[in-house]
Amino acid sequence: MKIAVCISHVPDTAAKINIGSDQKTIDQHGVTYIINPYDEFGIEEALNQKEKFGGDSEVIILSVGGEANKESIRKALAMGADRGILLKDENPKDSFAIASILANEIKALGCELVFFGKQSVDYDNSITGQLTAELLNFSCISVVISLNLDGNKVLAEREIEGGKELVESKLPIVITTQKGLNEPRYASLKGIMSAKKKVIEEKSALAVNNLTGIIKMNRPPAKKSGRILGTDSSVVPELVKLLHDEAKVI
Amino acid sequence: MIKNIIVVIEQREGKIKKSSLETVSTASKLASETKSFAQAVVLGSEIENLSSIAEYGVSKIIHFKNNDLHNYSPSAYTKIISEFAIESGSDLIIFPNTSFGKDLAPRIAARISAGCIMDTIHIEISEDELICRRPIYAGKAMLDVKFLSEKKVLTLRPNVFKAEKISGSSAEIILKEVSAPDLTTRVIDIKKSEGKLDVAEADIIVSGGRGVKGPENFHLIEELADTLGAAVGASRAVVDAGWRPHGEQVGQTGKTVSPSLYIACGISGAIQHLAGMSSSKYIVAINKDKDAPIFSIADYGIAGDLFEVLPKLTEEIKKMRS
């Protein structure tokens, strides 16, 4: 079984986001990058599934972007993935374009099980997995918090508002992963050392057009600083009055 | 530029979700602004109050009916909606940005080669183009985006667009019986969290952080939430510590929320938490540390001990309500 995990290389969630001078991208100054946190659940799940499948199963990490993405691919290899492929494209791509590039590669590799994080924490679209699945004519279950594969059959729980759905499907499939699915492992020292010897293949990405375009990136509307009413419960009646009369929210 | 709009209605257990009324209302306004035609599509078995959709301004409602469509089936829904979109010459399809819409919208986009813009909080027509504003980095920045494709798929963030009734409007309901839907991928069971309101849908959220000091003290948060009819939220720290389920997590790696009122208790306000809730209409912070970053975005703050303040707050609200 060939298992693919598609990952994004994103600014750390602790990073302050400032708008760049082009007003279309962020200011890179002082921003550190990490593997998209939701993708780590996908990597962990792929490694667990590989163990279950055994034989000559392998986990292949795919990422679309620039040279810098290799850093995140290397981290995934240190966690235990077998090899990586960087689909190189330095130009900004929308989700549809990225999905087209990934689908093309996944088809060529012959993977039947594909993992994505449920969304990347930069553009927050939460669609690349589903788009890729449709372009490949694969099944897809998104926002998965438990997964059970039995031969060709797939049974998964996905998170919805106020509960979860139990979903039945079959291979080949794309799964998008949510926190709660597993506990992603830390790379061991041995893993980090062996990752240095693992191959990251570089390919130029399939040429595709974006179907959406960025006009402008803006700062969020500034929230005016409020007031501290006091330091103990004596101000609670005042707070309740303000919420009722001024804010009119209770 | 837009000629034919489809609004996909979300139903759960045969009931139409409130966020879908917001999408219908928005689509009907967009249709009158662009002189285009808007119709609503719903898939399911029996659906309560289907005609009520008409009050929000669409003149045609298509009900694709089959018992196997009662629960969501990504494969069946995708096939039916994308075929209908092509057959009816639709060039804009609108969904609510819910777990349903987020799952389904991109699938339809892929089938009809449409650009897909998600989680929009503002739309406008400018120079004959549809401009969409959406939060990115969980709200740390805003992005104005446009479509470069002829066909367009759009999702709207719940609780942002208004659901407004238009008096005297009525709609034609067209029933289409579906035979043998493609059930390759389908929901076979739904497990509801017991009687709990979800942070993503709540109008008021009471959230607890590390300052609550332990899972055993969360009853203080829950009691206030119950009194207000609010959902319980949590910071990443307490979810990571296993005090609360991850479904309650608010922030960049949890849920992004924009309720009318957000009460943060014992939450210092890490940057990734603020990103997820700073668009709330009103924010109340209760925290011992008066220098905590949460106070910089709070409308009202109490720099005191939550163990003393919360019971009093619950009591005062009960008093006011009685």
Sequence of secondary-structure elements of chain A:
EEEHEHEHEHEEEEHEEEH
CATH superfamily of the largest domain in chain B: HUPs
- What CATH calls the topology of the largest domain in chain B is Rossmann fold
Radius of gyration of chain B: 21 Å
What does this structure look like?
The complex is a heterodimer of chains A (250) and B (322). Chain A has helices spanning 37-53, 69-79, 95-109, 128-136, 189-195, 236-246, and strands at 2-6, 9-11, 33-35, 58-65, 83-88, 113-117, 139-150, 153-160, 163-170, 173-177, 200-204, 212-218, 227-230. In chain A, a hairpin with a 2-residue loop joins strand 8 (153-160) and strand 9. The longest helix of chain A is centred in the N-terminal third of the chain and has 17 residues, at 37-53. Chain A is 28% helix and 32% strand. Chain A is an alpha/beta fold. In chain A, helix 2 (69-79) crosses helix 5 (189-195) and helix 3 packs across helix 4 (128-136). Chain A is globular. Chain B is α/β, with parallel strands linked by helices and 322 residues long. In chain B, 26% of the residues lie in helices and 29% in strands. Chain B has 7 helices and 18 strands. Chain B has helices at residues 18-34, 74-87, 99-112, 219-228, 236-240, 271-277, 306-321, and strands spanning 4-8, 11-12, 15-16, 37-44, 60-65, 92-96, 115-120, 122-126, 129-136, 141-147, 152-156, 172-177, 186-192, 204-208, 231-234, 261-265, 282-286, 300-302. Chain B has a 7-stranded parallel beta sheet with strand order 7-11-6-1-4-5-12, with helices on both faces. Chain B has a 5-stranded parallel beta sheet with strand order 15-14-16-17-18. Chain B is elongated, with a radius of gyration of 21 Å. Chain B starts with a strand and ends with a helix. At the A-B interface, helix 3, helix 4, strand 7, strand 8 and strand 9 of A face helix 2, helix 3, strand 7, strand 9 and strand 10 of B.
Write the layout of secondary structure elements.
The complex is a heterodimer of chains A (250) and B (322).
Chain A: E1 2-6, E2 9-11, E3 33-35, H1 37-53, E4 58-65, H2 69-79, E5 83-88, H3 95-109, E6 113-117, H4 128-136, E7 139-150, E8 153-160, E9 163-170, E10 173-177, H5 189-195, E11 200-204, E12 212-218, E13 227-230, H6 236-246
Parallel strand pairs in A: 1-4, 1-6, 4-5, 5-11, 6-10, 7-10
Antiparallel strand pairs in A: 2-3, 7-8, 8-9
Chain B: E1 4-8, E2 11-12, E3 15-16, H1 18-34, E4 37-44, E5 60-65, H2 74-87, E6 92-96, H3 99-112, E7 115-120, E8 122-126, E9 129-136, E10 141-147, E11 152-156, E12 172-177, E13 186-192, E14 204-208, H4 219-228, E15 231-234, H5 236-240, E16 261-265, H6 271-277, E17 282-286, E18 300-302, H7 306-321
Parallel strand pairs in B: 1-4, 1-6, 4-5, 5-12, 6-11, 7-11, 14-15, 14-16, 16-17, 17-18
Antiparallel strand pairs in B: 2-3, 8-9, 9-10
Helix pairs in contact in B: 2-3, 4-7
